[in-house]
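Try this one yourself first.
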């Protein structure tokens, strides 16, 4: 007889069907689409873990808090995983943050979720809570045993075994049913990257010299147990690089927990990081372990660190320096063993000058600061990224792409990409799903990209004098809007790094080109 594996509350039939398919026939998934029916079933069975999809139900109000409270009232030590949209209404964020539930934001990796559910199904539900440490003086240093909610977080974010078999950013093996993407003769050359950092399930490639130097330094820092600061515009790849740092570090087999500080209500950020005890504030109806405990010996990404208040910054500095902290409402001192990665889309120095960011924390973080270039300053990387996204979304959406027209690449190279890599991927995804004849052309791109009509940058105060790429040519003299170094990098890339052809295209001698490359540190 099939064993009951999990109870799922969702109004998304595609989610339930796909998740059941990932689980296989040997494990059963009990599905409810109504909260009342969900609670009724929860009173009849005791599953090892339940999943609540707040993306499809109870979008607002106080229903989320009541549902979680009633769930834990029936089974106080139940493992609960909540599926959240990328940006949730504040009532939902507040109710989840105040509960012992673990959470996962979009996009949801159903294979990883299935792996977690299978692992939990093999465990017998505990009838008694795990022992909590006795109260200690404030200066006591404790190592908290993982509580149920912490284990849920840990199991959920550990790299899936499937990631080793099929890395998400590695070109999958083709078979007869896989859509093919031709790299035909009309496509621009340059398939070999200048620098590559390879992790367990992802890799970062670049053909831009300044990114090469940054990645080389970051790779060294990743292998040491130190806090790093990543600065870059929204969509430039801070989260991706953070996960890559985790994967190439000695902590690769431990949890990776991202904390989007900007998506959390300001008065709950401290609870999310440090945890809280029951009754410490309104809505805290149960103890909750914060991310610093849930991560164990893994890695925590604190994104949008600039939103932290000055008091929270003091506590964060203490964690960085000594690892010590107290949950909200508690006098017990705990020890954080996780590695911290801090990220922001703002330069922190102006915030220090404005009194919004503590100088001591700034100078502590600025010791290992890495600036991620916006995509408009990484132009040699645009076409390789576009190729990768064409292939990935062709496979994902089952669209066969036989050839990519040169005009599409030209349009991509003209556009300044204010939304960076994230915008490029979304544009390519749109182009792929509208392609019907196997030939991907500029006509499949959004009009504003083809017309080179960029909207405001998501970091307008950081982006100045964005050049107009609509009149780009191969002549160095006609590209005064671009820096000399960027022009040389782009032309080298177009000519497969042939110095002779690059010099000819730029209208300069090979000796002049070599001297300029040497000047800008572009020679190997």
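Now uncover the answer:
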């Amino acid at each position: 007889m099939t064993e009951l594996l999990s109870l799922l509350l969702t109004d998304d039939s595609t989610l339930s069907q796909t998740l059941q398919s990932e689980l296989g026939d040997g494990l059963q998934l009990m599905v409810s689409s109504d909260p009342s029916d969900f609670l009724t079933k929860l009173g009849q069975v005791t599953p090892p873990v339940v999943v609540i999809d707040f993306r499809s139900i109870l979008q607002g109000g106080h229903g989320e808090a009541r549902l979680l409270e009633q769930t834990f009232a029936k089974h106080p030590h139940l493992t609960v995983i909540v599926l959240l949209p990328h940006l949730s209404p504040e009532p939902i964020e507040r109710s989840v943050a105040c509960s012992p539930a673990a959470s996962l934001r979009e996009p949801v990796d159903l294979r990883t979720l299935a792996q977690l559910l299978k692992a939990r199904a093999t465990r017998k539900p505990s009838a008694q809570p795990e022992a909590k440490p006795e109260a200690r003086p404030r200066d006591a240093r404790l190592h908290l045993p993982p509580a149920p909610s912490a284990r849920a977080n840990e199991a959920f974010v550990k790299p899936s075994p499937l990631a080793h078999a099929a890395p998400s950013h590695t070109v999958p093996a083709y078979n007869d049913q896989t859509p093919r993407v031709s790299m035909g003769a009309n496509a621009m050359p340059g398939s070999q990257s200048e620098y590559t950092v390879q992790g367990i399930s992802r890799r970062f490639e670049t053909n831009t010299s300044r990114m090469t130097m940054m990645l080389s330094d970051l790779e060294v820092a990743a292998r040491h147990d130190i806090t790093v600061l990543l600065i870059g515009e929204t969509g430039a790849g801070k989260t991706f690089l953070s996960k890559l740092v985790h994967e190439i570090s000695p902590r690769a087999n431990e949890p990776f927990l991202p904390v989007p500080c900007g998506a959390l209500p300001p008065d709950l950020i401290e609870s999310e990081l440090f945890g809280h005890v029951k009754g410490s504030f309104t809505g805290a109806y149960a103890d909750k372990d914060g991310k610093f405990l849930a991560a164990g010996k893994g890695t925590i990404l604190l994104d949008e660190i600039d939103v932290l208040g000055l008091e929270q910054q003091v506590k964060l500095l203490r964690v960085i320096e000594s690892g010590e902290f107290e949950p909200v409402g508690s006098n017990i001192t705990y020890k954080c063993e996780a590695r911290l990665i801090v990220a922001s889309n703002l330069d922190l120095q102006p915030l220090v000058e404005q009194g919004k960011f503590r100088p001591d924390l700034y100078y502590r973080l600025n010791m290992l600061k890495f600036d991620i270039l916006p995509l408009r300053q990484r132009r040699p990387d645009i076409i390789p990224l576009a190729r990768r996204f064409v292939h990935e979304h062709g496979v994902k959406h089952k669209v066969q792409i036989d050839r990519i027209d040169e005009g599409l690449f030209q349009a991509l190279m003209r556009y300044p990409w204010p939304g960076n890599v994230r915008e490029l991927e979304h544009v390519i995804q749109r182009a792929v799903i509208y392609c019907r004849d196997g030939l991907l052309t500029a006509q499949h791109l959004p009009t504003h990209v083809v017309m080179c009509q960029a909207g405001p940058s998501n970091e307008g105060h950081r982006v100045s004098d964005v050049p107009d790429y609509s009149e780009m040519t191969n002549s160095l003299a006609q590209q005064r809007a671009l820096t000399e170094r960027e022009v040389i990098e782009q032309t080298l890339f177009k000519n497969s790094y042939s110095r002779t052809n690059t010099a000819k295209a730029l209208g300069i001698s090979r000796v002049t080109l070599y001297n300029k490359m040497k000047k800008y540190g572009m020679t190997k």
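Discussion: The longest strand covers residues 3-9. The mean pLDDT is 76.
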